[in-house]
Design brief:
Layout (H helix, E strand, L loop, with lengths): L1 H5 L4 E3 L3 H10 L3 E4 L5 H11 L4 E3 L2 H11 L3 H14 L4 H12 L1
Parallel strand pairs: 1-2, 2-3
């Protein structure tokens, strides 16, 4: 999956935690749409509030204008920079190391 993810210029997805984090680790700009009520709404807000994605709450009205805005590479670069600042690409390994230490 990582190869597909890194081949993307942009990932438009519902804000599932795993796919969103995988995209952020891969440095792929995200647009979140159509969250499942509950945790995915929180994910969308968290990523957007920290500059790691754009949350499009009304895709039929807002998606096309957002895509036009993203033609300017600066916005995409800002998203990936925020992802690099906030997401630990070694989190899975760090967790395994921690678990080995406490066991």
């Amino acid at each position: 999956m990582a190869e597909y993810m890194t081949a993307c210029d942009l990932f438009i997805t519902k804000p599932g935690g795993l796919s969103s984090t995988e995209a952020a680790v891969a440095g792929v700009p995200l647009i979140h749409i159509s969250p499942i009520p509950g945790c995915e709404q929180c994910n969308a807000r968290y990523f957007a509030d920290h500059g790691m994605s754009i949350y499009v709450e009304k895709p039929q009205e807002e998606l096309l204008p957002v895509l036009r805005e993203l033609e300017e590479r600066r916005v995409l670069n800002e998203i990936t920079a925020a992802q690099r600042d906030r997401i630990n690409p070694f989190a899975a390994g760090d967790l395994c190391d921690f678990l080995e230490q406490i066991c």
